[in-house]
Amino acid sequence: MYIGLDLGTSGLKGVVIDDAQAVLAEATAPLQVSRPQPGWSEQSPSDWVAAAEAVLAALAAETDLSAVAGIGLSGQMHGATLIDRSGDVLRPAILWNDTRSFAEAAEMDADPQFRAVTGNIVFPGFTAPKLAWVARNEPQVFDRVAKVLLPKDYLRLWLTGEAVAEMSDAAGTSWLDTGARDWSDDLLAATGLSRGQMPVLVEGSEVSGGLRREIAERFGLRAGLPVAGGAGDNAAAGIGCGAVSAGSGFVSLGTSGVLFASTEGYAPAPETAVHTFCHALPGRWHQMGVILAATDSLNWFAGLVGSDAAGLTAGLGPLQAPGKTLFLPYLGGERTPWNDAKVRGAFLGLGHATDRAAATRAVLEGVTFALKDCRDALAATGTRLDHLLAVGGGAKSDYWLSALATAFDLPIAVPAEGDFGAAFGAARLGLMAATGAGAELATRPPIARMVEPDPDLRAAFAEGHARYRDAAIAIRRLT
């Protein structure tokens, strides 16, 4: 058996799979985000450990974990977890959707070596500008930083006692030479840091350390069992849904929205605001278009009108042409294609006829059009998408999937019953680390059905996307 732990923003999920990759048990524990100031987003790493303890205890109650042979990790990317020489956390972790370091990111991005070495824009959400912000605003904290860990790698430290990262997550820091798959000493020096303050790097399918005896005894696990390098959440989802070869990809409707495509090799195009990162398997890379508020937009609107997301989408019926009301999902800035931390969202074209259902459709359409921007940005780099799988909580909405398929003009596959996302991908990486297996294990899940584009609405969605783009350009001038 193998365990996958996925540290998300709103919760930590764990799954147990057997040698045939069937899910035997799963458990979740919720997490809260602190927003002490506008644009800030933080969590306490101790809450991550508490969530992991709760999940492991729940898994142990559901199945005997003594036969577990490997553990894999996945997690939210870009978070800055700052550790002192004693192993203590210096301040709350600054998360991926925190935009306070927009000025520092712009300064770093103006230095040509960052794009040239990392293959990416320096986004405010990435890790390096967060450290630059800490150095500028909390110098007493910065001076005590002995290690900078990404969120899932803090869990690894708890599990194994080892400070280790892997390539897919490290690629989102703005310190990794993404083509060489190694830390860049020059980029670290440019932010006042050194290689010694970084975790050791391994590939996602390699062993990163052994499980500490104390943890093993608490949950009925074997001491010393291998913990895999793991992956950032999106690369882990790619492993989970079989998106590991060129042309394969997925669209994720989670808190953020992701359009993920595996690529032939390393082919950066930072000017498009597309992310070009290492994949979780050796010698492989991927590209992503990323928007910051996908289901986050729907959940925000649900709270605004006193409902829940499922209730809003349940009665929408068949796909309709986009209405006059537009929604721009820039609740906390945007990445692809704008790279704009200051832009904010909006409803436009509101009228007396804009009832709750019409506004809900506008929210779904706005996220769809934002992801269409990502599709266009990926296409501009030469990246192709032959197969697209839907993952994430928002993929439960047939209306949303129909809108995406029509806007993309591409069928979208819906997996058969089961969760083939990041936690499952992490478990697969744990299996690989324990057995020495590789990409052959990352197969595509069984497909329940295909959501086809609606040919009668293609033109209407193309027109709606054009209006959305015009509105986005206008809003960016005002915010």
Task: Describe the model.
It is built from 16 helices and 24 strands. The protein is of the alpha+beta class and 479 residues long. The strands form nine sheets. A five-stranded mixed beta sheet has the order 3-2-1-5-15. Strands 18-19-17-16-22 form a five-stranded mixed beta sheet. Helix 2 crosses helix 4 (127-137). The N and C termini lie far apart (51 Å).
Radius of gyration, CA atoms, in whole angstroms: 21 Å
CATH fourth-tier homologous superfamily of the largest domain: ATPase, nucleotide binding domain
Biggest sheet layout = 5 strands, mixed
Strand % is 15-25%
Number of strands: 24
Structure class: alpha+beta
- CATH architecture descriptor text of the largest domain: 2-Layer Sandwich
Classify the helix fraction into a percent range. Answer: 25-40%
The CATH C-level class name of the largest domain: Alpha Beta
CATH topology of the largest domain: Nucleotidyltransferase, domain 5
Unreliable stretches: none
Number of domains: 2
User: Cα distance, first to last residue?
Assistant: 51 Å
Which word captures the global form? Answer: globular
Number of helices: 16
Main sheet: strand order: 3-2-1-5-15
Global mean pLDDT: 94
